[in-house]
Amino acid sequence: MRGLAQIAMPDTVCVGMARLYHVNDPTIPSTYTWAIDGITQASTKNEIGITWSRAGTFQLTVQEHAISGCDGDIRGGLVYVVAPPLANAGPDSVICFGNSIQLKGGGGNTYHWSPSTYLSDANVSNPFVAIPAAGTYQYVLSVSNNGCPSVVKDTVLLTMLPPLKLFAGNDSSVTINQPFQLNAIDVNNAGFTSYKWSPSFGLNNAQIKNPVAVLNSNITYTVTAQTLGGCSATDDIVIKVFNGPEIYVPDAFTPNNDGLNDIFKPTYVGITQVKYFNVFNRYGQLVFTTTNPSAGWDGSFKGEKQAPMAYVWMVEGVGPGGTSIKKKGTVMLIR
């Protein structure tokens, strides 16, 4: 009997992997019978190529047939065919602007995320992602398990929300111990469901969007609002407290469009009505007038910038109970 057929067994392969098995020297003039789980295969040579298409444990055997008519023993071994792992990139997520998130990949024992942009490590199952701008970002996960790669990759979508905007109100002046209505504004209609003002000093309720403040000293309030999804925004408001009713008027302004002290206007404390606020040049010509407590002079007249010099102003307001408060003075326009 000829020499026994030899085969390296057991073998472990991945589904879809091609393998070439061979025995003896190809110059030996024998034929061979190959079988998988007893089912004869097409090859009669000393080698056979097999592409394993499904997972499982299979018995691969081979028998040599010598030209003398003698058959060798049936020899073989087990082939363990491992199914490809299933990549799981985790659930899609919506992220509050400024927050990071940790991905939750699964399905293998080695991992690779693509692209690697903004990831703490593209080759772990659970990298942290710190996305700097609003938008939707896609990450694709491929995995392998015991050397077998995933056939199908998985994708996760991350949506970074734009920054939320909250407006606590314009900085204001109030009369000492007079109620002042606060009101936080959801600028982009984000759907804030809770509010918190800090400090709570002087507020009738620090947990609503529009508390009332009664103050005896200057204060800065910070309000934080939050959506049901946990996204938040913060803003501040400065409130200066004066004895009143009173009208406070600055003595200089600089209308140079730098955003600082560009507008000349009084601060009205405890004033319920502005009867007039007038500004005159040195020739007695009226260059500005208003009854709007929010309006002020920008240093121009009929579209022309006015010269730097002293200007005369006059103002009259009405306080609680109809009390009239009149003031006049000069302001220096500085360019």
Kindly report how far apart the N and C termini lie.
115 Å
CATH class of the largest domain: Mainly Beta
CATH architecture heading of the largest domain = Sandwich
What percentage of amino acids are in beta strands?
A: over 45%
Structural class: mainly beta
| CATH topology tier name of the largest domain | Immunoglobulin-like
**Number of domains in the coordinates?**
4
Radius of gyration: 42 Å
Residues in helix, %:
under 10%
Annotation, overall tally of beta strands: 31
What is the tally of helical segments?
Answer: 0
Shape: rod-shaped
**Arrangement of strands in the largest sheet:** 1-7-6-3-4
Can you give the mean pLDDT? Answer: 93
Unreliable runs = 1-6
The description of the largest β-sheet is:
5 strands, mixed
